[in-house]
Amino acid sequence: MGAKGYIARRAAQSVVTIFVVAVLMFVLFRLMPGDPTAVALSPALDESVQQEMARQYGLNQPLHIQFIRYMASVVTLDFGYSFFQNEPVRDILMRRIGNTLLLMGTGLLLAYAFGTSIGALAAWKRGSFDTRVLVSAVLFRSTPVFWLALVLLYVFGFHLEWFPIGHMVDAEATYSGFLDKVFSVDFLHHLVLPVLSTVPFYMAYPLLLMRTTMLRIEGEDFITMAHAKGVRDRDVFAKHAARNSLLPIVTTAPIVVGLAVAGNVLVETIYSWPGVGRTLVQAVLQSDYPLAQAAFLMIAVIVIVGNFVADLLYTVIDPRITYD
């Protein structure tokens, strides 16, 4: 199987996975306690108004008709209106997705940058430094994201008051657009604590794998040959050992992306970050079924697409990969 065939097969698998997740979302939300009809239709409304709202939301239709309408909405990305916010679900999520990707992307970028660098140094400089790094990495990996977020919020937000305790920007701040807001000092000030809550946990995976790979590569023939040719230790470390140890790091991406999505839901809720994760929690608590289903599906798509991209990236950077 060639590269094009492999890409087509992985793309088809991703589409099937999204379909299965969409079906599960439909079933699970119908099994949840609470009556969506009672949530959407207030008893105080006139009966004719209730009937019109039931028709609009499709709440008075048989289950199989609701499923067909739901799958059609998934394909067309038209998820209807939110029960409580009274605006299209798609518009709500489109305003939130950029905030979520920005928070998650910043955390992952810093985690991989620091994780691979520190892991490589720990393997190259054995001794007390390596021991401290190894203990710290295990500690980071064992620390729940929500616990660290609460500790940082209390210490640096409430007690020391060095950083804001929530939201993306100050309430009274006004910006001309998304980019204007993102590149403001106000936004960066609000970003610090949420990112610091996630980076240590995400960083542990690439750090430990980088260290292990570097230790294995140290005994390879090409490292011995580089030393024999008189190559400086710094160049052997950077150009030979570290570079060849980066390939396995890509394999951790699907795992870390999945953890990042789950962690982001908690961090966004704790810091009142206006992202998809916080929107999902609010929608579930309010039994806002259209919004909750769409938010769940969007989060699942982020994970599935992240895995797909990681698979393709690994085949690109490692020419030894076969497409069987």
UniProtKB/TrEMBL annotation:
Signal peptide: none
The family this protein is said to belong to: Belongs to the binding-protein-dependent transport system permease family.
Keywords annotated in UniProt: Cell membrane, Membrane, Transmembrane, Transmembrane helix, Transport
InterPro entries: BPD_transp_1_N, MetI-like, MetI-like_sf
PANTHER family: OLIGOPEPTIDE TRANSPORT SYSTEM PERMEASE PROTEIN
Topology class, membrane: Multi-pass membrane protein
GO cellular component, one term: plasma membrane
Superkingdom of the source species: Archaea
Organism annotation: Halolamina pelagica
Domain called ABC transmembrane type-1: residue spans: 97-310
Any Gene Ontology biological process: transmembrane transport
Organism classification: Archaea, Methanobacteriati, Methanobacteriota, Stenosarchaea group, Halobacteria
Subcellular location: Cell membrane
Protein name from the UniProt record: Peptide/nickel transport system permease protein
TM spans (from-to): 12-32, 101-124, 145-167, 187-208, 246-271, 291-314
